[in-house]
Design goal:
Layout (H helix, E strand, L loop, with lengths): L1 H30 L2 H8 L2 E3 L6 E3 L1 H19 L1
Antiparallel strand pairs: 1-2
Helix pairs in contact: 1-2, 1-3
């Protein structure tokens, strides 16, 4: 039963992270000047060309906030 609960919270973690990252990106684009917003929203390639993945700062912030929310919910 605990495995199913962890799986469900894992799915919730990634969905919540995507929503937070996307919303944060939209807010940053509308509120901050274009220089700073461009830096925060720009996609960075990490890794070797064939094995690389793309990240942006808003997505990382979304993952961190989502981690804290889901870990708080798991403690309850």
């Amino acid at each position: 039963m605990k495995g199913i609960r962890s799986f469900i919270f894992g799915i919730i973690f990634f969905i919540l992270a995507a929503l937070i990252g996307y919303g944060l990106e939209k807010v940053i684009v509308h509120l901050l000047p274009s220089d700073l917003a461009g830096t925060l929203v720009r996609v960075f390639d990490v890794g070797v060309h064939a094995l690389s993945f793309n990240v942006n700062i808003c997505g990382i912030i979304g993952l961190v906030i989502s981690y804290f929310i889901v870990s708080y919910l798991l403690k309850k």
